[in-house]
Amino acid sequence: MSILIDENTRVVVQGITGRDGGFHTGQMLEYGTKIVAGVTPGRGGQTTQGVPVYNSVKEAVAATGANTSCIFVPAKLNAADAIVEAIYAGIKLVVCITENVPNMDMIRVNAIVDAHPGTRLIGPNCPGLISPGKCKVGIIPGSIFMPGSVGLVSRSGTLTYEIADELTRAGFGQTSAVGIGGDPMIGTTFKDVLPLFEADPDTQVIVMVGEIGGSDEEEGAAVIRASITKPVVGFIGGRTAPPGKRMGHAGAIISGKTGTPQGKVAALEAAGVPVADTPHDVAALVQAAFAKLRGAH
Amino acid sequence: MKLHEYQAKELLKKYEVAVPKNAGIATTPEAVRAAVESLGGRGVIKAQVHSGGRGKAGGIKVANSLEEATQIAANMLGMLLKTHQVPEGLTVEQVLIEEPITIVQEYYLSVVPDRNSQRNVFILSAKGGMDIEAVAEEDPEAIVHLSIDPLIGINDFELREAIVSAKLDPAFANKIVVFMKSLYRCYLESDSILAEINPMAITSDGRVLAADAKFQIDDSALFRHKEFEAAAQESFEDPFEAEAHRQDIAYVRLGGDVGLMCNGAGLTMSTIDEVKRAGGNPANFLDVGGGAQAERVSKCLALILSDPNVKGVLINIFGGITWCDEVAKGVIAGTETLDVKVPIVVRLAGTRAQEGAALLASTNLIPATTMQEAAAKIVSLVG
Fold first, then answer.
1. Disulfide check for B124: which of A267, B33, B166, B249 has CB 3.0–4.6 Å away?
2. Is A22 exposed, middle or buried (0-12, 13-18, 19+ CB in 10 A)?
3. Are A184 and B116 within 8 A, CB to CB?
């Protein structure tokens, strides 16, 4: 099994005729993702890469039964509005890849998401997600993943690739990998994804990749203590980052006593989560977690 | 992007948030003297640098005469102001000249986005004029939070309740409600991620004023705020960060001697960690961005090498949508046009890494296969 997406996922790509939207549509199709529709206002009726284009998400859903949206609409063309359009059209899983969505827009969007139970937003400013061998939604390179029993959730894109590559090389495939994004205002956080991996029968070990800034890792640690029985391995990026400096991601900033790597590592360790010192060490900790599981059986 | 106090106060005025009368900014003692004269012969001279704690550091002085104004300005302009927030100091290039006010009460008021509730919150306290983090530590109960539902907006009664909870003078409750509503509108419409009024002052003549103002605008929203374009350009004190901003490169100067170019914020942060672990000192954070083309890679390399402290460069790329051979082409093109005198270690993994490695084979660039190996190599070369 896997979480959130699988072979039954039917994707509509919002912004399918743009440069990034077009390129990644090709990549997703190549991976086997069922892209059933694209949306670009004013381009309805056209076809691109064999995918029919509609003027609105509502039309696309009515015509194709799409249940998941992947958004490439640029921030300047109102990506936040594209998220709301998907929610109103009844899309259950909205994945927003777009970076630099204004903070104020996301506060409004998140309030709208909250008012629509049953709808999940991933991102913005995220690489998307992948269930190896079944489906990928977003920009994650499929070649470094393989099916297996590690569940991976991360705030960072390339760091996820680095770690996934090490896991795959070490023989540990993945059920699903979810990139939640590095912005301060995002839809899905660690505390939301961890229970999904807990409930997935095929996921045996969970890897959680955090970074400095905010307190999502601490909240995730609280969920682990309270309700996660599967072994979790952690990593925190930015261990040596200076306070007060925004490290690329809008959310990656130590402000006062909030968001420090020490606080995050301590919270995870207190929840029984071993935290790797380097991305390279994650695979070894995963191996140890599997060894312990086998020993227990 | 941070606004200077005088810029924040100009913004506040547009939203009818009361600020002390001012005579604008000045960059010479003569101009300061003229400004104080225009205010009637007395004035407060305030250093315009991006840091709190200016008063204690000597960056805020009252001039009771024109002679004093000239004297204070001569001392303050050009000085390196060392505050507890920026101990290395900031050079004072301009000062704001304001009317002197007599403060009878100092309160704290701010609006910020709260990550946990995913909403904007007011933070209010009767303990104004000091660092709010210090108040939070000593007397957390003195701080009141009020979160605003973005779909509903502000209800006046909630503001009144917050004012009561924070134990502000009830005689000023109505004026403070108006102040808070105007501030919130200003915060929303300017796409701010910080609007801090510390102190919000009650004056002896019964006014509620923003005695100081600290604003930060969301960089992601600058595209719809042309009015901040000039302020954005001068908001970088570091000349390398300013240049990076002009070229749209995600760059933070860290002060060490190992220049870094990586892709993705998380991988870049982890590479910095790795270099430090190997005993090195990173010069910068630089995220080349997703899908970077050769030309952009060359530009990034030029920016890194423009920092005279840089004694070596580490390039760490995990190709997803970025193609490693494209990066290799950019690095090679960069080294051909720039006069490179420092060693460059390149680690390429992921998409088209082999093609990239093949391009590097016939150059002076030093290859590495893992992050750790790359970090160890560059640190040993820089020495």
1. B166
2. middle
3. no
